Amino acid sequence: MRMSQLFSRTLRQAPAGAESRGYEYLLRAGFIKQLGAGIFSNLPLGFRSLKKIEDIIRDEMERIGGQELTMPVVNPAEIWKETGRYYTIDKELSRFKDRVGRDMVLAMTHEESVTAVAAGAIDSYRQLPQLVYQIQTKWRDDPRPRAGLIRVREFTMKDSYSFDADHEGMVKQYEAHYDSYFRIFGRCGLSVIAVGSDSGMMGGKVAHEYMYLTSIGEDTIILCDKCGYTANRQVAEFAKEYYSEDMLEMQEVETPDTPTIQALADFLDIPKRKTAKAVFVMGTFTDEHLQEYQKLIIAVIRGDLEIEEAKLQKAAGAKELRGAGDEEIRSCSMEPGYGSPVGSKNCLVIVDDSAAESSNLTAGANKPGYHIMNTNYGRDYTGITADIASAVDGEACTVCGMPLRSSRGIEVGNIFQLGTKYSEALDCSYQDIQGKRKPVVMGSYGIGVGRLLACLAEEYHDEKGLILPISVAPYQVHLVSLMKSGEEPQQLYEKLLDAGIEVLYDDRKDSPGVKFTDAELLGLPVQITIGKRTLEQGAVEVSLRRDGEKELVPLEQVTRRVQELIDMLSQELLDSLSEAP
RNA sequence: CGGGGUGUAGCCUAGUGGCUAAGGCGCCUGCUUUGGGAGCAGGAGAUCGGAGGUUCAAGUCCUCUCACCCCGACCA
């Protein structure tokens, strides 16, 4: 490609709102262009990178037996009603009616459609297992898109779906994906870790997320450096210490101006772990007639710990949670700041095991300025016990007991063991060897392609611009010509093309400074500089973007030398694969 | 959906209610220049996000509205 003809142009200044360096460079280098909140165009350079990522994904999907197909972005709402997601997913799922008033949705993922397709295609156990995948546009009307390509509303996702006769088969395909994903991310040059995760709206039990660890990430990961335990904070567990002793009589005490645990502990001069904290939230639930209703939830946890909302939501079985207002709390006979489940009415009580298993905790008296000492779960109040505590730095690992550490990360892929949720809802079944009809057992597996590129831009840049790995850079070579006349640059360009090398040829009439700066901004792995000065020695300069060290290469050896460098860079990425966990 | 912020040319910015809306980058033409974002001269490009209003006079003040960004809620 000639740079003088390139569709996009580089920007000297970053458009306002480019928060991270990776995003800034993608914009300035002309990879992407924003059209609306969370809506981007992929310009030719960005599109080439995305295609390279997609081809790596295709390669690896085919390796584990995947067959590519595509499914429609617009779905009749009917199948989404049958699986219930039409009702359980909120505004994130965009709905509309077609011209005759039929309910339609924009697919945010394709479990429904793939299951409907498979229902017609699969009849017999002989056809199983199956694995199909697509690289398709998804639309999710996220309430808050942000961070450039990290969190968008329209995006390209690789999604694959496995179909098996039984759980064991599904686990096999799940494990194949588990390894395949490391190969995919590795070939793109991105280091990720797999962490146990919440299955969220997908349903199912076992799930992993592939996280790229970065300070700009929006998920919090809990890890154990000793034994390798990793989990999203939403589901991360830790070893809790209980403090059990003989139960004492409840006793009300006056505790003025102590609406927080800290104030209470200071006032009574007791450790926080001797207190019980009550957190009030309103949960939205769906009854058997699919009618929504709200109910106050009081979450009780020992005062030295914090509530993890995702865990609480799951334990309560609520569709969504929001903070409760003071009046809502009082209407259930409790008092904000001095609340406890003792004497509560008309609300759902969820008790963390830390509070349930510890004795004689000081809890609110449900009147301002008073607390009750020596409350005990089971004797003084009841409720559902569950683990609703948030794992934080320094808590003990459940596996090995060593202190846990937290880190920020971005989810670039996920794998779910779905089971039969969708196959049962949409009647996707097969006949087994005994002629018995059974639902197929499914798995679903996603990779955000654009998000992956965004993570790579985040990982691979310096103060001058991008330094994308050779496997995903839009071109392999940036040929910079400083000549104002002469045939040599053009001839070299054609020679490289003939050798099958991907070249971006800067044939513009700009000054050397402009060209070098742009070459650094785009950051193509190999740079060739050809100018009068080099030609006097019958040579060109060749350098790698990542270190900038220049070598003089005779004209007739350029193609071979550049090919060597490309092979070396490619091999490095492949070599790193064996190191994957 | 709550809180905060910003909308002036392709990009970044300036602009006490008062003359024809200013500058830098980029763009076009010509000349010069060519190993690190060149120089000179000339030029194009803005219904100041939109709609109402106040005023002799609105980019500037008021109301409404739209869009985008950030924090939170939410989420892959």
Number of strands: 29
Structural class: alpha+beta
**CATH domain class of the largest domain:** Alpha Beta
- The count of helical stretches stands at 16
The tally of domains stands at 3
Q: What is the name of the CATH topology of the largest domain?
A: BirA Bifunctional Protein, domain 2
**Secondary structure: helix percent:** 25-40%
Low-confidence stretches: none
CATH architecture verdict of the largest domain: 2-Layer Sandwich
Largest sheet: 9 strands, mixed
Task: Please state roughly what percent of the residues sit in beta strands, choosing from under 5%, 5-15%, 15-25%, 25-35%, 35-45% or over 45%.
Answer: 25-35%
Molecular shape: globular
Mean pLDDT: 88
Q: State the fourth-level CATH superfamily of the largest domain.
A: Bira Bifunctional Protein, Domain 2
Radius of gyration: 29 Å
List keywords for this structure.
five-stranded mixed sheet, BirA Bifunctional Protein, domain 2, 581 residues, Rossmann fold, 16 helices, nine-stranded mixed sheet, single chain, 3 domains, 28% strand, 29 strands, RNA-binding, YbaK protein, alpha+beta
Structural commentary:
The chain is of the alpha+beta class and 581 residues long. It has 3 domains: 19-236 and 406-458, BirA Bifunctional Protein, domain 2 (2-Layer Sandwich), CATH 3.30.930.10; 251-386, YbaK protein (Alpha-Beta Complex); 477-577, Anticodon-binding domain (Rossmann fold), CATH 3.40.50.800. Helices cover 27% and strands 28% of the residues. It contains 16 helices and 29 strands. It is globular and about 95 Å long. The chain binds one RNA strand of 76 nucleotides through strand 16, strand 21, helix 14 and helix 15.
